[in-house]
Amino acid sequence: xxxxxxxxxxxxxxxxxxxxxxxxxxxxxxxxxxxxxxxxxxxxxxxxxxxxxxxxxxxxxxxxxxxxxxxxxxxxxxxxxxxxxxxxxxxxxxxxxxxxxxxxxxxxxxxxxxxxxxxxxxxxxxxxxxxxxxxxxxxxxxxxxxxxxxxxxxxxxxxxxxxxxxxxxxxxxxxxxxxxxxxxxxxxxxxxxxxxxxxxxxxxxxxxxxxxxxxx
Length: 216
What we know:
By secondary structure, this protein is α+β, with helices and mostly antiparallel strands. The chain has 2 domains: about 5-125 and about 200-215, Glycoprotein, Type 4 Pilin; about 125-200, Dna Ligase, domain 1. The protein contains 6 helices and 6 strands, in the order ααββαβββααβα. It has helices at about 5-20, 30-40, 85-100, 160-165, 170-180, 210-215, and strands spanning about 50-60, 75-85, 115-130, 140-150, 150-155, 195-205. A 6-stranded antiparallel sheet has the order 2-1-3-6-4-5. Helix 1 crosses helix 2. It is globular and about 55 Å long. This is AMMECR1 domain-containing protein. Pfam families: AMMECR1. InterPro entries: AMMECR1, AMMECR1_dom_sf, AMMECR1_domain, AMMECR1_N.
């Protein structure tokens, strides 16, 4: 089995490919991919709920497709939600939204498939932080909320973002305040009354090449 892959990541590719081919529904359902992983890899996981908050992240692999490293990719789209959603419904919805509706990027096109990498992060273990620094790098994702000039702001980083960017906690918080919509020239998280929620994530990933190899 490809390292750190899952039927959830495989299903996201099915959703994307079906959408690019103008199909109204995925070719296979999530149960198909779970059964496929069990048959091919004796797969099991500790996903023991039917509904999860989740994020879907699409990246473009920049390195060797056969031997790429974790840092050899560029973000292509990432959107999710903090509400519990039935897994299949949530994966269908956010695989498409993150691929086609992330306002930071143009919609993904079929010509990009060969270099795509998808990551699925299922969110769990939510806790209210005692203060903005009450979380662990590499273990927790964080969501912050605060008020800036009468306007409510919020933003989140998944657990792997600060590690990939080599940020410490304070740098992470400053970038998160900026992500929430505060001008980068005024960013200092200490200026705001930040409410922090920390959480953990079960992350799985799969490249397009590994997806195709499922059917070989």
